[in-house]
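Changelog-adjacent note: as of this version, every example in the card shows the full chain rather than a window. The one below runs 148 residues end to end.
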Amino acid sequence: MIEAIGFGILGFVLMELSGWAIHKYLMHGPLWKIHRTHHEHSESFFELNDLFSLMFGGISILLIFLGAGELDFRFWIGIGISTYGMLYFFLHDVLIHRRVKWLDRPRGGFLQGIFKAHQAHHQSRKKDGAVSFGLFFVPNKYFKNLKR
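Full-length structure tokens:
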């Protein structure tokens, strides 16, 4: 059981780290034409950038499927990636961008720091000049002077 939890956490952390690198070097690089739809205002619920979520979700499903017979490391890493995806949806799409208006934007604490970091990321609507490419691991400066 400890091994399963460890591989689940590993999948989650690997997703944040690889997501940061993919976001910074690919989405704000050669894949900007797809990702820019996320940096531009749109009245549509869906944006071309959602293809990245489908790709990451597909990887998660594939790993879960491949490891399901033995409940081996692939299964638990897939569960970790899937958990990351669900939390990403909740934080990014529900709380930050309010694509689904279930809750108000965060007003304090850890979630407010994540919100501030993402706002800083979106100050640039261009390929270059953006900051803060992760979702959960963000620089400490976004947590200073927050209400607790």
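Structural remarks: The chain has a mean pLDDT of 91.
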